[in-house]
Design goal:
heterodimer, A: 235 residues, alpha/beta, seven-stranded mixed beta sheet, 8 helices, 16% strand, B: 120 residues, mainly alpha, 4 helices, elongated
Chain lengths: 235, 120
């Protein structure tokens, strides 16, 4: 990783008291030159305090505004403090921060605006059948739309250039709930270069997935609508 | 429909209108949101004599049982009301997100400045 690059790691977290300290510590160990900000999305537990104890800057949202809203807060923070690169990691310990440097290196080498960490390019990663089908369908759509092969468009482990995160920090440029395929397509539409690079992920160690219960069904409907909207959007 | 029933329906509509006016006057109900309810109040008042129009309209449209037309119109009014309030909720959610983000970022800056000052 280039030492000239001012990097910010954004970790959105909602009630992640069980894992947040470990995630922040591992991130700081792996990326000592980077700053770490935890965006607590209206957590009702000790997440903000524990994140601060672990050495992260903490932006504490007064209410829960959703995963996308929390990430966008991190992008706004990065834009205000003039960072060059943002790396996004989940607060549940699913993403291995050791791979963040590879994402940034790929971004620099390929002159990309966004590099998405794919769990499927780096060996096996088990997901449920329903999710596998949803990912497969969305991969086909986003690959056909952008002309670039994507294997894991729902991954939240990403590196973004200043141009990309400054664009996404604008009011209506980022969805509140699921910033996935629709964001890749919207970025492609705005002529941002989006690529994938391999990363390692572990299955969510604790807590409840945001894709549990009936949420996958809602997710597929919601994402399909978002994709149609991106396709129909003018300008 | 008897004249008594017509008077009661008219009074209910009038009561609804006065209630909405009163709420707006006391600042308990925002004007732009009250428009839908004022429209509903006027509709209720007019419905006191609606059977005359509905009967004719239903027969022109080939509807054998005129109250069905009344229910369909009522359903459409409620449907548009629901859509209107969904749009309002969506706008509010967007504004709430902006406010929450701004508040959190400002709070962070405030704490940072306070820490800086206390270290001097």
């Amino acid at each position: 990783m280039s030492t000239r690059v001012k990097t910010l790691v954004v970790i959105p977290a909602y009630d992640e008291a069980a894992t947040i300290q470990d995630v922040v510590k591992r991130t700081r160990d792996e990326m000592p030159a980077a700053d770490v900000v935890v965006v607590s999305d209206g957590s009702s537990d000790d997440t903000p305090r524990l994140a601060a104890l672990a050495g992260a800057a903490v932006v504490d949202l007064p209410c829960n505004i959703g995963y996308g809203g929390a990430l966008q807060t991190g992008f706004r923070f990065a834009a205000q403090h003039e960072y060059d690169v943002v790396v996004t990691l989940d607060g549940d310990g699913q993403h291995d921060p050791a791979f963040a440097a590879q994402l940034i290196a790929t971004m620099e080498r390929e002159r990309a605006d966004v590099v998405i960490g794919s769990r499927f390019l780096h060996g096996e990663y088990r997901v449920g059948v329903a999710r596998k089908v949803a990912i497969w369908i969305f991969c086909r759509i986003v690959t056909a739309y952008t002309g670039t092969v994507f294997t894991d468009p729902t991954s939240g482990f990403q590196a973004l250039s200043r141009n990309a995160f400054t664009y996404l920090a604008l009011r209506n440029n980022y969805p509140l709930d699921y910033p996935d395929v629709n964001v890749i397509m919207a970025l492609h539409r705005m002529r941002f270069k989006v690529l994938e690079a391999p990363v390692r992920m572990v299955a969510k160690p604790r807590g409840k997935s945001m894709h549990s219960g009936l949420k996958p069904i809602f997710y597929v409907v919601r994402m399909t609508l978002a994709i149609v909207m991106v396709m129909l959007k003018r300008g | 429909m008897s004249i008594q029933v017509r008077i009661i329906i008219f009074c209910v509509g009038l009561g609804l209108l006065s209630l909405v006016f009163g709420l707006v006057r006391r600042g308990r109900f925002r004007e732009e949101l009250s428009v839908v309810w004022l429209f509903i109040g006027v509709t209720v008042m007019l419905s006191a004599g609606a059977d005359v129009v509905l009967d004719r309209l239903a027969s022109r449209l080939g509807i054998g049982y005129p109250p069905v037309l009344g229910f369909v119109l009522l359903f459409l009014v409620l449907l548009f009301g629901f859509l209107y309030f969904s749009v309002v909720t969506s706008d509010l959610k967007s504004s709430l997100k902006e406010l929450a983000q701004q508040t959190a970022l400002l709070e962070y800056e405030l704490k940072r400045l306070a820490d800086k000052l206390s270290r001097r």
